[in-house]
Amino acid sequence: MRILIIGGGIAGTAAALALDKAGAQVSVHEAHPDSGADIGAFLTLASNGMLALAQFGAAEAVARAGFELTAMRLTGDTGSVVSTVPLGETGDPLRRFRCLRRAELCAVLREEAVRRGIDVRHGQRFVTATEDEAGVTAGFADGSTARGDLLLGADGIHSVVRPLTDPEATRPRYAGQRVFYGYTTEATPPNEPGRIEMLRGSTAAMGYAVSPGGETFWFARVSAEELSDAEIAETTPARWRERLLPLLRPDATPAADIVAATDGRLMVTNARDLSTVTRWRTERMLLIGDAAHAASPATGQGASMALEDAVVLAKSLRDAPDTRSALERYERLRRPRVERNIVDSARLTPRRAPSRLQRTLEGYRAKWKSRTGAPAPSSASAATSDGELARQLDWDTPLTADSPAVQGS
Ligand SMILES: Cc1cc2nc3c(=O)[nH]c(=O)nc-3n(C[C@H](O)[C@H](O)[C@H](O)COP(=O)(O)OP(=O)(O)OC[C@H]3O[C@@H](n4cnc5c(N)ncnc54)[C@H](O)[C@@H]3O)c2cc1C
């Protein structure tokens, strides 16, 4: 089977590795001229993401690129510690949480794909696709085309593939928070190796972790109006720092000192999510990763969910009798879990009432039913079980028509 993957970010490159392992012939078409890099955000990969990576042999390379997080400490705005909890599966070194820049994760996955002989093409901006009984043809901005049996839209939250699988899909929505993040080697906040610090400030929530090399990685989430693209492009890091500092200074935490010690490596973005039930697939196209189910960043699960997608899709195509039943099986197994993550993340993102979000999801399901005559895939019957998730991801455990879906993250 020949599979065209649009987007060489986390979901796209991971899917390429997993599908290659399952025996498919894949090509990755990434718009960025030389990498899937972005403006420099970092992320934490949770144990479930590391478990997914292990299924296609990429956990060790990713583990080397990032640093371990084994505990999380929560501190209130008065400076008193509220709790310290272990993070994820700390017993297995390869399943520990990892902190790394998104661009580093993409680079490791891409290097692994190229090393395995996978066709990864840069500078190919997808613009459209047409499908027929025999296959699907992708068209790119440079006038080139590519032909395959299946096309995966792994092109992120602003997906260009999405309107092709769901012409009625709504655009991603602002989730109510600005996310600042930065890096500094000039701060010396309290820290312990492997511990991420969460600071529940009076106005902004902040998190930081100090790498073994002494670099502080930090983010801050602030409820406020959406920033325009122009404001983001035109505002300097120094100006963002000036705007953020007064929100942090009143708290008896290290938050303000960390931000004050951050020079040019300070960025901001709008938190967005896809809080409607999007139609993920046609006969020959399927959305994965953020293109299908972007959540606001609060649960820190978007990348791990994209890695899970890759494994479950590859196993579904490997184990189902034909492509249509493979895609159905994939959606039945994935939708409850990723929708739950969108709702959970919205719950942690003030200003977006989760009940309203839930109502939106329910309203869309009703619309889906009237449009297709069939009930929308639901999260109601999904189990919440780490053991079940491990079985679902385990490469050697077949995915059968009655494999149970898993919900919690
Ligand atoms: C501030 C912030 C913090 C986050 N923190 C975390 C965290 O701690 N943990 C976590 O797990 N997740 C986190 N996330 C979410 C995580 O970054 C995403 O879920 C993840 O990047 C999704 O991967 P993806 O491959 O689906 O999309 P992306 O990473 O967006 O990749 C999409 C790729 O498609 C390419 N592309 C786009 N359009 C086209 C086109 N037309 N043609 C060809 N290629 C195209 C892009 O260049 C890009 O390389 C965070 C997100 C944000 C915004």
From TrEMBL:
Keywords: Monooxygenase, Oxidoreductase. One of its GO terms (molecular function) is FAD binding. Residues 3-342 form the FAD-binding domain. InterPro entries: FAD-bd (IPR002938), FAD-dep_Monooxygenase_BioMet (IPR050493), FAD/NAD-bd_sf (IPR036188). Residues 374-383 have a biased composition (Low complexity). Coiled coil: none annotated. Residues 349-409 are annotated as: Disordered. Pfam families: FAD_binding_3. PANTHER family: MONOOXYGENASE, PUTATIVE (AFU_ORTHOLOGUE AFUA_6G14510)-RELATED. This is Monooxygenase. It comes from Streptomyces abyssalis.
